[in-house]
Amino acid sequence: MNHAGKLAAIRGLMKQQHIDAYIIPSSDPHISEYLPDRYQCIAWASGFTGSAGTLAITSDFAGLWTDSRYFVQAAEQLAGSGYELVKLQVQHAPEYADWLAGKLPENAVVAFDGELTSVSLAKVLLGKLEPLRIQVRGDVDLLTQLWNNRPALPISPAYVLDEDITGEATPAKLQRLRVEMKQNRVDAHFISSLDDLAWLFNIRGSDVNCNPVVLGFGLITADSATLFIDRQKLKPADRVRLDDAGVELADYAEAEGALKRLDEGISLLLDPKRTCFASYRAVSSSVTVVEQTNPTTYLKAVKNTVEIGHTRNTMVKDGVALTRFFKWLEETIGREPITEISLAERLRGFRAEQEGFVGESFDTIAAYRAHGALPHYKATPDSNSVLQSEGLLLVDSGGQYRTGTTDITRVISLGHITDIQRTDYTLVLKGMIEGSTAVFPKGTRGYQVDAITRKPLWDHLRNYGHGTGHGVGFFLNVHEGPHIFNTAAVDIPVTPGMITSIEPGLYREGNYGIRIENLVLAVDNEKTVFGPFLSFETLTLCYIDTDLVDKSLLETRHINWLNDYHSLVYNKLASFLTTEEQQWLAQKTAAI
Fold first, then answer.
1. Residue 91: what pLDDT?
2. What whole-number distance in Å separates Cα of residue 215 and Cα of residue 235?
């Protein structure tokens, strides 16, 4: 079936089961951002491949609700599918719930699959629709019977990391978690989110593309820790290591049964944003459910000294790979065909030469000219542009190494740059420098750093539609909470040890896009009579194209930062480069 045929088949099942609206979120039973193939439900149903969106289907309308990062992509991919793009006003907001509330009559039935819907989202739907006498069902899977040859759950091997990599053994992490549980006065804690499990049990795998995680659930009490996982993924030696750490292994499919068997009268902590509704509904009404963010999410966000040291070394490896990549590109373009896809493949090759490289931390965004205006663009055989010796090229990429995770964006000139492109580029750079050099009091939130970063663009009546920065894991997910630098009033203070991206941008649809991104580490700065202050240490090591810089738009402090940064880049990388590569990098990092 094509996508229009699949939509018709879904509507046929809806009619049979007397369902007036069916919701398909981009999710899995672990409420992941990036999904195993089995749970690529939106792509299967509609053709849209972005990482954020929701389908809402009624008898006479089918829409994809997504945010500004995907407007152009969604419009192209939904053509002929029977679905229409609905532009979200607020990123990740369930605005389709209000649309359904205004559209459906009393006694209508709205349904969704509880395994693919978070507790928080399910409660929003219930809260908005049930008072209007609209029935909400969270136990309906319409896709499995229609999806021929649906991919099975992944069976990739998993492994346990050594303490000299993680800096902290699982028993110590469990002890810290149990302290948090005691403070929250709960008897048990259920964990669904895969990166929290990976951190707590020091396990990694490849069940999800680009994210080194393993499908599983965790149930922790004061005297037990159970990891629900496909045991065949682990070598016998790793099973012994987990057993020695006080971790009992159980089958992946047994997690729901364990929730049903919890003792009456106990209290259970779970994260409503990171736990699916089906797991929540499995808990007996005699159990008191405490809904809070997973304590491990906070613990994981603050890197220990071993993780920080490994990350600094990993940035050197990544910087060497990037230097060789950009040198190759400059010397090759115009001599042989280079496309966006071949460019991404070549970059992966340079990273793969580095010790400890495991894979990419996300699909590389190699975006030439107008494609750069699509913040989450991914080249396809149909869109694959051939690079020419003119225009702007945006490359947003990252690597997963056993000693850290990287994420970097650079824009370079391929020739014949206009004055407005130079202005836009310089203002984005100025914003990145402002964010990177911010000094701020303890307790500062991400939205405050976001505003500091945006101000140079605001001063020239420019802006961008995505956040300024996201947390980054340690050999884990490239997008990691709980902290984030964006306009949302997320009440999470910036804390020493957190690694975050700073990535302002500017996008002119149909023409070009600019984004410059470094990763930074929050560090203690100085304590004064006004309290303690923090600042950032820049971790990323890669030159910034100065051919695009208009110095008249920068203050002396911005120029000094750029020159100092380039000196740091050269000094950190030079000893790992050949003489020819050193000479090339010296030119790219020359003071302006």
1. 77
2. 16
Residue 6 to residues 18, 85, 147, 386, Cα–Cα distance (Å): 18, 17, 9, 34
The parent domain of residue 454 ranges over 302-588
Shared domain check, 122 and 84:
yes
Token pair recorded at residue 331: 């010397």
Q: Using the CB atoms, write b or e for 520-554: b if 16+ within 10 Å.
A: bbbeebeeeeeeeebbbebbbbbbbbbebbbeebb
Q: Which two tokens stand for residue 383?
A: 């869109």
| Residue that the structure tokens 């990391």 belong to | 161
Position 151 in a domain: no
- Say which amino acid occupies 460: H
Reply yes or no on whether the pLDDT at 441 is more than 90: yes
Q: Do 292 and 309 reside in the same domain of the chain?
A: no
- The amino acid at residue 318 is D
Which of 175-189, 429-443, 478-492, 540-554 shows the lowest per-residue confidence on average (mean pLDDT)?
Answer: 478-492
Q: Is residue 319 part of a domain?
A: yes
**pLDDT given for residue 99 in this prediction:** 96
Query: Per residue, what are the HEC states of 28-68?
Result: CCCCCCCCCHHHCHHHHHHCCCCCCCEEEEECCCEEEEECH
Rg of the chain (C-alpha set): 25
Q: Is 505 contained in some domain?
A: yes
In angstroms, what CA-CA distances link 55 with 250, 272, 286? 34, 21, 35
Q: Do 254 and 306 reside in the same domain of the chain?
A: no
Which structure tokens are listed for 575?
């000893």
Residue tagged 């990177």 (tokens): 436
Q: Which two three-digit tokens encode residue 367? A: 């975006």
CA distances from 460 to 313, 437, 466, 557, 558 (A): 38, 20, 18, 19, 17
Domain shared by 99 and 182, yes or no: no
**pLDDT surpasses 90 at 260:** yes
Lookup: tokens for 374: 């699509």
pLDDT-derived band at 548, boundaries 50, 70, 90: very high
Q: What local confidence, expressed as pLDDT, does residue 93 receive? A: 83
The gap between the terminal CA atoms of the chain, to the nearest Å, is 58
Is position 534 within any domain?
A: yes
State how many domains the chain has.
3
CB 177 within 8 A of CB 189: yes
| Domain shared by 511 and 541, yes or no | yes
Residue 275 shares a structural domain with residue 339: no
Query: What global pTM score does this model have?
Result: 0.95
Read off the CATH number of the domain in which 173 is found.
3.40.350.10
Q: Are residues 168 and 71 in the same domain?
A: no
CATH number, domain of 554, equals 3.90.230.10
Tell which of 280, 300, 320 closes a domain.
300
User: Does the pLDDT of residue 345 top 80, yes or no?
Assistant: yes
Among 104, 137, 170, the domain boundary falls at 137
Residues 282 and 386 occupy one common structural domain? no
Closest by CA position to 404, among listed 83, 167, 132: 167
**Residue 146 in this model has a pLDDT that exceeds 80:** yes
Q: What are the DSSP E strand ranges found in 82-185?
A: 84-87, 109-112, 135-137, 159-160
Could you list the beta-strand ranges (E) of 229-277.
248-250, 267-270
